Amino acid sequence: MKKVVKFGAPLAVIALAIAIAVFKPWLLFVDKEVNDEIPNFTAQTAQATTAQSEPGSNETPNNATAESNDTPTTPVLIAQGDFISHEHETTGRALVFKLPNGNHQLALENLATSNGPDVKVWFSQGPVVEGVAGWTTAKDHPHLSLGTIKGNVGNQVYDLPADFNPSDWPTVDLWCEQFGVSFGAAALQKV
């Protein structure tokens, strides 16, 4: 009996230490707040771009002059979607902007989710599925990883690759690579 205790106790301590190192349970109780500046845009900016690009549109938006060119001078919101919860409660909004230079940015606005050991920000070609069935949907579809999430609370902005095509990526997913589950996802709708 003493041999079991003599070897069992140290093995249990080692197993516990490994489990703590792998699962990092303290992250569930620690928030990392990020407050990146969300690009300034207005509803008129998005409407003005639409009105200017529609064939046969002779209207000049209130915030533009007849002499203005077709290139916006501020970011234009082109898609957005609200997060739904998967493995962990997740709220907030995903916003995709087209910048005046033609590049794109993703903003996660008012994000609130659990902290995790290896959570990535993904664009996915998969659908957003509610409930437990949606926890693993993203892994079965092509994805574009933007890297590790900056924080689990607040606002954060990610620059997107130069060749990013918003129509290829209808979903934003907060994906935990270590456990192979989605914390939450947002289906993007064109604005």
TrEMBL record:
| Cell membrane is among the record's keywords | no
Q: Which organism is it from?
A: Corynebacterium mustelae
Tell me where in this chain the DM13 domain is found: 75-189
The keyword Manganese appears for this protein: no
Question: Under what name is this protein listed?
Answer: Electron transfer protein with DM13 domain
The transmembrane segments are 7-29
Compositional bias (Polar residues): 53-74
Q: What keywords were assigned to this record?
A: Membrane, Transmembrane, Transmembrane helix
Segment Disordered: which positions? 45-75
